[in-house]
Amino acid sequence: AQSVAQPEDQVNVAEGNPLTVKCTYSVSGNPYLFWYVQYPNRGLQFLLKYITGDNLVKGSYGFEAEFNKSQTSFHLKKPSALVSDSALYFCAVTAGLSGGYQKVTFGTGTKLQVIP
Amino acid sequence: EPEVTQTPSHQVTQMGQEVILRCVPISNHLYFYWYRQILGQKVEFLVSFYNNEISEKSEIFDDQFSVERPDGSNFTLKIRSTKLEDSAMYFCASSRTSGGVWQETQYFGPGTRLLVL
Q1: Cα(B108)–Cα(A34) distance, rounded to whole angstroms?
Q2: A47-70 burial, b for 16+ CB within 10 Å, e for fewer?
Q3: Bridge partners of A115?
Q4: Closest chain B residue to the Cα of A32, Cα to Cα
Q5: A35, A91 in Cβ contact below 8 A?
Q6: What is the pLDDT of residues B46-65, one digit of tens each?
Q7: Across chain B, where does the E strand assignment appear?
Q8: Of A15, B34, B45, B111, which has the fewest CB atoms closer than 10 Å, so is most exposed?
Q9: Along the 116 residues of chain A, how does pLDDT read in single tens digits?
Q10: What radius of gyration, in Å, describes the C-alpha atoms of chain B?
C-alpha cells in the first residue's frame, strides 16, 4: 500500500521569508510525487511533480520541491513567501510502475498561512 | 488553457435521493477519476475509468455509486440513494496518454459540493 504523511497541519511563515512544507511517502517501486494547492472553495491545482531525473524540481508560482530518496521525502519549498501563497497544500504519490495507470494517494494537507 | 469542468457547483439533496454529478474532462484526456473530500479531511480516491470501464475503485465506491461516460465529452458519477455521510466535495480529474501510455499528472476540476440532508 502507498501512503503520504504531511506531519504539519499548519505552517505559519512571515511574508518574504522562505517556506517549507514537509512530506514523506511510502510506496512500492519508484515514486511519482506531486504537490497540489487548494484555495478556499476551489479545486486542486497542480503545482509540480517528480518523476525522474534531477532531485530538485521547479513548478508554478516559484515553488520547488526536493526529492530525497534515502529519507523518502518530497518537501515543498519557496525562497520568499507571498501572502497570496496562503492555501492548503497536498502532497500525493503514486507508484511509478510500467504498464499504465496507477492510483494517486493524497496526504492530509498542510495549511500554509503567510503573515504580512 | 484547457480545464476540467464540473456541474453543478453545489447540490443539496434529501437522504435517499439519487444524485448525478457531471464532469467534462480535458478533451484529449482518456483517463478519468472521481475523488471526494469530506470537510476538513483529505482527498480520497473513489474510482478510475478508462476505455469505458472501471480501472480501479476504492472500498468507498460501493454498489450505491456508479460512473458512466454517456457521450464523448461527459463523465458522470451517480449516487443511487444518498446517505448523510455522502456529504462532501466531489472532484473529477483527468489525465492524458502519450503514445498510448498513461501520463501521470491528474488535472482536477473545481468540485461539486454535495450536501445530503
Answers
A1: 13
A2: bbbbeeeeeebebeeebbbbbeee
A3: A14
A4: B104
A5: yes
A6: 999 988 899 889 999 999 99
A7: 5-7, 10-13, 19-24, 29-37, 43-50, 53-57, 65-68, 75-79, 88-98, 101-102, 107-108, 112-116
A8: A15
A9: 789 999 999 999 999 999 999 999 998 888 899 999 998 877 889 999 998 888 999 998 999 999 999 999 999 999 999 999 999 999 999 886 655 567 788 999 999 999 99
A10: 14
For residue A96, give the C-alpha cell.
Answer: 511509478
C-alpha cell, B104: 501521470
Which of helix, strand or coil describes residue B30? strand
Which one-letter amino acid corresponds to residue B110? P
Residues 18-77 of A with CB under 8 A from B: 32, 34, 36, 42-46, 49, 51
Phi–psi pair at A92, nearest 5 degrees: -145, 155
Task: Tell me the Cα Rg of chain A.
Answer: 14
Interchain contact, A44 vs B104, CB within 8 Å = no
